Every structure is written in structure tokens, then in C-alpha cells.
Amino acid sequence: MIEPSGTDRLQSVPTGITTLLPTVPSTGSSPRQGLPPIRLLAFVAIAAGGLAWDLWTKHQVFAALGCPGVRPVWKGQALGVAIQFQLETTFNHGALWGMGQGQSWLFASLSFVAAGAIGYFLWQGHITASKWLTVAAGLLLAGTLGNLFDRLGLHGWRDAQGEVVYAVRDFLDFWFFGTFHWATFNFADTYLVAGAIMLVVHSFLMPPPAPIDSATSTLGNGPA
Q1: In this predicted structure, what is the pLDDT of residue 18?
Q2: Which of 80, 141, 165, 184 has the fewest Cβ atoms surrounding its Cβ within 10 A?
């Protein structure tokens, strides 16, 4: 009797058995492999464009009005609500809505942590996994860097004693119903709020990714 060769033995193994054999994962893959280039470009464009607009508007308004300074822009009604919008320059030594006054270095440190977290999730590919998260993360990074720039005193403003002002430049100011004053803010704040809302909406409304069945995955790697 003629014994089959090694090749013949491998070929004679039933297909159903070979498809159940585990596959060895590749160890040479990089976390950046598979990042959609279009979404990555969109993320960079949103973050860079938002940051540029925030810093430019701050510079222009503060250069024109000084600090403190006020310039009325519009006063009227919308949906029966009296609204007054003006440009009012002020320095915020805290966070959104004036919380944590005098804690600029704390919020600057948190900004570094937030930027690092966004960079990590971008590296892992989680951010570019969906268009929604790409936009949200781009807005969050733009807002984080815009206010971090100010908290580090890079805007160049100094107080009456010649000390660098480590505070965020705010200038968008709204009054509602004639007496209710909304906290003065800037465009970086709007990015942060919009990005945070998008993350909350994503966590509640977006379906989680379907789990990958190991048996199905293994069978899919076998020969046809």
C-alpha cells in the first residue's frame, strides 16, 4: 500500500475539522492600522479650525475693546423672549459658568489630562470608529486647547501690577427677559458643551457594536 505524502495527509483532513482550528493572530499590527483617513482628516480639521477661530476671535475682541470693555451688538425678541447680546470682555479664573474661581492651574492640569485622553482614544481608533464621535472629539479637543492656551497665560495679557493673567478670555454675553444674565463665555466653551452633549447622546441613543462571535470568526477564517 502506498502511504500518502505529508501534503496528501493535510489535504485529506475533512474541511469541517480544519475550519475549527484556531487561527494565530498577527503580532505585528499597530494600533493605528485601519484608521479611516477621511475621518482622521476631519478630526484634525475640526480641532485645528475650531482652535484657530477661538483664538482669533478672542484676540480681535480684546484688542478692540480692551478689558474690561463692552459693545452692544443686538437687542430684540425671539419667540416672545427679550434678548440682548453684547460683547463684554472679562477674564475667567475658573471653569464654565464661573465655577472654581482661582483654580486656573487645576483646570489647566485637567486640560492636559483631557487632551491626552483624546489622543489615546484617537490612537486606539475608538474616536474614528464613527462620524459622530469624530466630530464630538474634534470639538472637545478644540475647546480644551483653546482655554488651555489662555490658562497658561500665552495670550500675553498682564494685570495692573504687570503680572501675567492666567485666566480664560470670555466675551460673548447674553441677557434674557431683561434681567437674567447668562454667564459670559467664548467659542471654546461652546465647543466643550456641544462635544459633551454629543457624547451623552451617543451613549444613550447609539446602539453598541455587535459582539463578534468567536466560533463564527474562526469558521470565517477557514478554507471554503
Answers
A1: 44
A2: 80
